Amino acid sequence: MQLSGVKLLIFFSEERGEKTLTLFFRWEKMTIIVSLSKLSFMSHITKGQRYVIESMLQAGCTKKSICTAIGKDKSVLSRELKRNSSKRGYSAKLANEYANERKERFRRQRAFTEKVKDYIIKCLTEEQWSPEQIVGDAKRRGMKMVSTERIYQFIREDKRAGGTLWKHCRHRLKHRKRPVGGKKVIIPDKVSIDERPTVVNEKQRFGDWEIDTIVGPENNGAILTATERARGCGSAPAMTIC
């Protein structure tokens, strides 16, 4: 409504027992905001708060003042603008539709029902599939399925309860944190093979040996090979990897 050149907008919303009353005054370039809502770090934004955001953005208000008006932290507002804005900007009506659609899609596809649970148990115990394979097969078949991480959570919960589903995982829930390519071993005072004497490359002198290791499948056992370069003879004793 318009009173003597002063625009007054009143927003009142109530959701989940939380009441929010926002008074938005604007006169020329001056803006006064009075909010009765308390600052909240929760990510949930109500329909009424979205209309406050839209109006204040159109009025050129700062994000800080918008956060004060809706009673939310600035990280909550930034996430709301990023997720629910369109190419034309932020619209409260569209933002609410986006949020409801996302909520419904999440509820519909990620419900951990008894049917989904039985299918996961069957794939783990009978097919010996990994959670990644279970999700991939369900996607190929067009079945409703939870995420890979949710399946791992279910397996861990079963293990804590005394179950044996974890034994069907190939790594048995043992994830090793290591750099890509394995652990890098630095040999002290090492000399590059490019720096060896020329006589060694000519293979004319007896007593120059090449040593290497051959590791067995799954790191079980190894063979140490030692070859004399001049004659090509050598030995290969077996080793045990501790």
Describe this structure in words.
With 242 residues, the protein is α+β, with helices and mostly antiparallel strands. It folds into 3 domains: 2-107, no CATH class; 110-168; 196-239, no CATH class. Helix content is 37%, strand content 19%. It has 8 helices and 8 strands. It has helices at 47-58, 63-70, 74-84, 92-109, 114-125, 131-141, 148-160, 198-202; strands spanning 2-3, 6-15, 18-27, 30-35, 209-215, 222-228, 234-235, 238-239. The strands form 2 sheets. The protein has a 4-stranded antiparallel β-sheet with strand order 1-2-3-4, covered by helices on one side. Strands 5, 6, 7 and 8 form a 4-stranded antiparallel β-sheet that branches. The longest helix has 18 residues, at 92-109. The protein starts with a strand and ends with a strand.
